[in-house]
Design a protein that fits this description.
InterPro entries: Ntn_hydrolases_N, Peptidase_T2. The record marks 153-154 as: Cleavage. By secondary structure, the chain is of the alpha+beta class. The protein has one domain (7-306): Glutamine Phosphoribosylpyrophosphate, subunit 1, domain 1. Helix content is 32%, strand content 25%. The protein has helices spanning 16-27, 32-45, 90-97, 108-117, 128-140, 208-211, 216-225, 230-248, 305-316, and strands at 7-11, 66-72, 78-84, 105-107, 155-160, 166-172, 193-196, 200-206, 255-261, 266-270, 275-281, 287-294, 297-302. Strands 4-3-2-6-5-1-11-12-13 form a 9-stranded mixed sheet. The protein has a 4-stranded antiparallel sheet with strand order 7-8-9-10. α1 runs antiparallel to α2 and α2 (32-45) runs antiparallel to α3 (90-97).
Length: 320
């Protein structure tokens, strides 16, 4: 019997463990929505990842504000939360909101009240390690009159199940030392994520203020609808956005996107060096890749053992 096709693609090395677990769910015939929530929850729960969930880095007030989103590409239902504090696993709240007919995006106190009412777990998301890192960076930046902004690595995951249902999810603690209440692209439909099971899906990571200027994820899906391959759509969208930003705004931040079409084919584009992402399919076990762009075209290859070991040391080693 021929194997039924399924696939996952995710931003950043931090998604590897979640993608690996979710691949078994899809292999066993689970819906792509479960693969998304379970894989992103794995990332959110790991305390050493500084840009997502528990252990995420705080805003300028020293508080962890989290954003997350979920979209079902078959029904086009979506849900999102922004600026939510002291609630575990915002991806689960976003997925739950996608089942509501109205009020699909909730922010701040309203999102927190709704989550508690619905039985989601309250949790202090600021770890001692994150506080220590915050203080070190504060002394190195704001304390010296320098810009503090860095660290905006959203986890975004796309899953296609054996029935070709495509879902996408995102989760992030946002820009490190952001202003209280700042919201980036991650919970904004069309910018940080978009999915249509009849076409495909995309999810973006990088500087949200710039990614939103191009409605990046929707634009990638639109290009796939118009006949481009996922790789062509990803590169064309980021190349056009970066050029436009330089021409009209004078600068461009970090921009990266991963995507998948309805056939399970994937694409990736980036304007940074060694952008890491993860792929798993019925034919390929969960694998970390590194992407680079030259002359407008992105190429990628599996990360080697040295890179993976160095990554693990950076994540779990002594704070500097």
């Amino acid at each position: 019997m021929k194997k039924r096709k399924w696939a996952l693609i995710a931003t950043w090395r931090m998604a590897y463990e979640g993608v690996n677990s979710a691949s078994y769910l899809l292999k066993c015939g689970e819906h792509s929505s479960k693969a998304i929530t379970e894989s992103i929850r794995t990332v959110e729960d790991y305390p050493y990842y500084k840009s997502v969930g528990y252990g995420g880095l705080p805003n300028e007030e020293g508080e962890v504000e989290l954003d997350a989103a979920f979209m079902n590409g078959t029904t086009l239902a979506f849900g999102a939360v922004a600026g939510i504090k002291n609630i575990a696993n915002p991806i689960l709240i976003a997925e739950s909101l996608s089942n509501e007919r109205f009020n699909n995006i909730l922010v701040g106190v309203g999102a927190e009240k709704w989550a508690i009412k619905k039985g989601f777990m309250a949790k202090n998301m600021l770890t001692e390690r994150a506080k220590e890192f915050y203080q070190k960076r504060y002394n190195q930046t704001i304390g010296r009159g320098l810009s503090p902004y860095s660290g905006h690595d959203t986890v975004g995951i796309i899953a296609m199940d054996q029935l070709q249902n495509i879902c996408v999810g995102t989760s992030t603690s946002g820009l490190f030392m952001k202003r209280q209440g700042r919201v980036g692209d991650s919970p904004i439909i069309g910018s940080g994520f978009y999915a249509d099971s009849n076409i495909g899906a995309a999810t973006a990571t990088g500087l949200g203020e710039d990614l939103m200027k191009g409605c990046t994820s929707y634009e990638v899906v639109r290009k796939m609808r118009d006949g481009m391959s996922p790789q062509q759509a990803a590169d064309a969208t980021l190349n056009e956005l970066e050029l436009t930003l330089y021409e009209r705004y004078g600068k461009a931040g970090d921009l990266s996107v991963v995507c998948m079409n309805k056939n399970g084919n994937v694409g990736v584009s980036t304007n940074i060096d060694n952008f890491s992402f993860v792929i798993a399919t019925e034919a390929i076990p969960a694998t970390v890749y590194l992407a680079n762009k030259e002359n407008g075209r992105t190429s990628y290859h599996p990360a080697d053992e040295d890179w993976l070991a160095a990554y693990q040391m950076r994540v779990t080693g002594e704070l500097k």
